Amino acid sequence: MRFSEKQKKVLTWWCPSSPDCGCDAIICDGAVRSGKTVCTALSFVCWAQANFDGAQFGICGKSVISVRRNVVAAVLPWLRRLGFRWKQRKTENLLEISCCGRTNRFYLFGGYDEKSAALIQGVTFAGVLLDEVALMPRSFVEQACARCSVEGARLWFNCNPEGPQHWFYREWICKAAARNALYLHFTMEDNPSLSERVRRRYRNSYTGAFYRRFILGEWTAAQGLVYDFFDAERDCVPPPEEPCESYVVSVDYGTANPASFGLWGKRASVWYRIDEYYYASRREGRQKTDAEYAADLLRLLDGRRAEAVIVDPSAASFIEALRRTGLRVRRADNDVLSGIRITAGMLKEKKIVLCSNCADCLREMGLYRWDDRAARDAPCKEHDHAMDDMRYFAMYLAGREGADPFFAAAVERPIG
Is 306 helix (H, G, I), strand (E, B) or coil? Predict the structure, then answer.
């Protein structure tokens, strides 16, 4: 593999001959697939092994699983080529790395929510790598940085951009010089292993704020319609002829709020929203029971056999009611931002297609907007019920079709 000039700078910034060797930290941000993760992780390990023996280090991500997949699995082949040896102790989330008579311990941590900060308290590190730092809570990141009290310790950050009000952008990137941090901004052109065909596929997979963030690498606010690229007249089709190869129902459950069910049918690798059910209790003047909704869902299926019914994970009683009917029920993944990214990509690539008879879903597509009053990215909590059930379906499909590297990566994060 060839390295770009920017990747070489990441690999060598800590060397005594580098003009940046006096920095206490490095920050790499920018586009997806720009080569940040591999070169940052490889540089981190090489720096640790060159400067310490018997020390402890932290490698942090949104979850331990993502650290193993996105960092450890990416860097180990490179370490093998360089003559490093290692032992993994998965039960301890520990990686022991040895080379040239030196052995250091690298602990893996997941910074998923505010409670995660407690996991890292009390540990002493000689350095820490925070992969996709913008996805972690501030409390966890600050706790990880505070653990680096060994003389000569340094901090390593990489991430894809979020909104311009994000704390990491304001406190670290905008203040990089004051924090004595080397800041490097990456584009896909900084990754020489990426072909133009792959670059083009990624450019075509994002739109709006996500395009500006993950392709242009900008810290930009999400504004306007969530699915601003969607044109009902251009993108809708009549329902395909049935029977379909497979069927799935996606459910956003509501009692006081509307309930929305989407019926999806697969034809020739494309999933169509062939029918839907939408009940607004306030408009109708009566709330329905779980048993009534379950009967409505069975009527929507109309004798079709669903491979799965994907349900709002908070609807515990309705999930139980559906299971009693013999349906295969799965709790939906309710990661909103990842779900929106995946749904947008699938709509653009025609992996999922909305049919012209799904009036409520199409109505919400034209009303579903980003909340410009929110401190962090969030859609407005209105006109979002069919949008939520569609998002649940897209997340289910992305997880089921894990062989697709783009969407499988996007479930957790876009790979940097």
Answer: coil
